[in-house]
Structure formats: C-alpha cells, structure tokens
Amino acid sequence: MRGARSGSKTAHESGFRHHKPRPFAPLDFEPYEGGADPARVSEAAHLSAQAFVQRGIENQDPEVAQRLIAVAEDQGIEVLAELWSEAPAHSLPGALWRLYAVRTATLNMPDVMAARFSAGAHRAQVERIVAGVAEPPTSEELKKMTSSILSGAFDGDFAHALERTAAYCRVLALGMVEHADAADLASSARGTQLTQRARSLDNTANDLEVCARMWRQGTLV
C-alpha cells in the first residue's frame, strides 16, 4: 500500500455564481476572492455561525433543524460559502462549512462516496462504527447518514456531529487511497490526484476533530 503523496494542494474553482450548488468534493476548500473588508467578513462569518448553531440547539422543534439543513440544498452552498469559506479551519464557521461541504459532496456523488467508503471500511473499523453508516453502505444509506449527522449538530451534540463527520472522512480517505492504487495501473496521474485528495480529506478529518475538542472546552467561536 502506498502512503499519501506529498505536495497536496486543495483546489476550488473560485468565483462561480450560479444559483444551484454544483457537484464538488469536500476537499475543495479555498477562500473566495472578493473585495469586502476581511475584518467585517470575518465578523459576519462568526456571528452568523453562532446564531445558526445556537438557534438549532436552543430550539426543541425538529423542523427548525431541518430548515437549517435545507439552506444548503434550497439556496446553494454558495450562500454559506460566501461567509464561512474564508474562516479559519479551527473556528465555528470553519467547522460548519466542512459539515455542509461533506454532506453536499455526498448528496451530489452518492455512488462514488459509497464505493470509496466500502473500499476504506475494512481498514478503519472503529471509524466506520463512529460514523454510523448502516450495512451495506449504499449510496442511500450514506445520504441518510450525512443528513442525520447534520441534524444531530443542531440537536445539542455538536461535538459528536463533528467527530462522526471526521470518522466518515477518514474512511473515505482510506478508500480513495485504495482506488488510487488501482488507478495507477491505468493512469499514474489519476492515481496521484486521488492520493492527494485523500490526504486533503484526512486533513479535513483532523480539523473537525480539533473543532470537536474546542467545542467541548468552550473555545470554538
């Protein structure tokens, strides 16, 4: 088994402005370009993230959580990305951006994600259990799982939602490395690309785990 290659760089085609979310991978994090005052953008990102999470946690109505989740689907991930994509990874808006991005990528590419999860599951039994994916991990089960994680984030256990997403990302990353080994036989460039994406996804898992610890310590803002 080949280890993850070095030189990984996240990539995101910045500047898209259509109204429906396009398919993208959760590793595609890159700040949006723009001319707004960075300090004001940062303040808006943090205040909106705090209001978003607090509203879900304090409200006992499950429909509120569903409405919060629907923002990414009905209005497009751009609505959130404009504010949250530039936030530091170890911050509340940065954590929310990653939760939404992972879920959106799964909804957009359920069959691909299911194949990657299946390929990595045998190498990450603990993470598979933490993620909470039913067996077999079909595309429909993965979509249900990512939705349940996000709704759980607004039911009061935000740290657990972050940890479940991190575990899910780790299984996916291992599956991508498996696929990279197979892809190398046909195209070394494709194998390299998959390995780099696996490394980036593993870094996302690290960031989410740090955010979970910070949330429990009361320092995630």
Tell me the strand percentage band.
under 5%
Oligomer: single chain
How does the helix and strand content classify structurally? mainly alpha
Q: What string gives the helices and strands in order?
A: HHHHHHHHH
Largest sheet: none
The number of distinct β-strands equals 0
Shape: globular
Low-confidence stretches: 1-35
Terminal Cα span: 39 Å
What is the overall number of helices? 9
Helix content: 55-70%
The radius of gyration over CA amounts to 17 Å
Whole-number mean pLDDT: 77
Key features of this structure:
single chain, 221 residues, mainly alpha, 9 helices, globular, disordered N terminus
Descriptive overview:
- The chain is mostly helical and 221 residues long.
- The chain has nine helices and no strands.
- It is globular.
- The N and C termini lie far apart (39 Å).
Give the arrangement of secondary structure elements:
Blueprint: H1 38-58, H2 62-74, H3 77-84, H4 92-108, H5 110-121, H6 125-131, H7 139-153, H8 158-183, H9 188-217
Helix pairs in contact: 2-7, 3-4, 4-5, 4-7, 5-7, 5-8, 6-8, 7-8, 8-9
Can you give me a brief rundown of this structure?
This protein has helices at 38-58, 62-74, 77-84, 92-108, 110-121, 125-131, 139-153, 158-183, 188-217. It is mostly helical and 221 residues long.
